[in-house]
Automatic annotation (TrEMBL):
PANTHER family: LIPOCALIN, PROSTAGLANDIN-H2 D-ISOMERASE. It catalyses: prostaglandin H2 = prostaglandin D2. It comes from Phocoena sinus. Residues 1-28 form the signal peptide. Belongs to the calycin superfamily. Lipocalin family. GO terms for cellular component: extracellular space; Golgi apparatus; nuclear membrane; perinuclear region of cytoplasm; rough endoplasmic reticulum. One of its GO terms (molecular function) is fatty acid binding. This is Prostaglandin-H2 D-isomerase. The keyword Cytoplasm applies. The chain crosses the membrane at residues 38-56.
């Protein structure tokens, strides 16, 4: 179950899934004129894409998680995610440090060595955000993931289509894209 812990820690904005391979497409660009203050607040992880064999095996067991993005005391962002695991709510917080232009962050996984880069590729701040995460840890240990954040638990069909198109542009295949099912558990404001 350590691998599941790893997944949920990263699901917040990303997903740390063990050994993954980078798609052949170039990394996605950043949201132009990214406004961090508008990105703050409550998001739901509504969609994920990865080419990890572990992810493909476990994707049917995953459900939506809730994340709150808040300013960190020393700069950057605190990403606090709450998710259902073994019928209990778990909460994890990651510190996302600025890593270049606005919209680009990095974090160090508490479970896996290596630095992970997170890019906010596109957002309207009100309904959705598309993110791309990658890590280079050595031969055969690189990983990448596309993530759909939604301000609601039920993103509109056009937002889901936008995410699928984005994920495919990053080199992910149809079977590596999943829209996470809603759950009533762990989604309340106070969890």
């Amino acid at each position: 179950m350590a691998a599941l812990n790893v997944l949920w820690t990263g699901l917040a904005l990303l997903g740390i899934l063990g050994v993954l391979q980078i798609p052949t497409q170039a990394q996605a660009a950043l949201q132009p004129n990214f406004q961090e203050d508008k990105f703050l607040g409550l998001w739901f992880t509504s969609g994920l894409a990865s080419n990890s064999s572990w992810f493909l095996e476990k994707k049917k067991a995953l459900s939506m998680c809730k994340s709150v993005v808040a300013p960190a005391a020393d700069g950057g962002l605190n990403l606090t995610s709450t998710f259902l695991r073994k019928d209990q709510c778990e909460t994890r917080t990651l510190l996302l440090r600025p890593a270049g232009p606005p919209g680009c962050y990095s974090y160090t996984s508490p479970h896996w060595s290596g630095n992970h880069e997170v890019s906010v590729v596109e957002t309207d701040y009100e309904a959705y955000a598309l993110l791309y995460t990658e890590s280079f840890r050595g031969p055969g240990q690189d990983f990448c993931m596309a993530t759909l954040y939604s301000r609601t638990q039920a993103p509109k069909a056009e937002i889901k289509e936008k995410f699928a198109t984005f994920a495919k542009a990053q080199g992910f295949t149809e079977d590596s894209i999943v829209f996470l099912p809603q759950t009533d558990k762990c989604m309340e404001e106070n969890t």
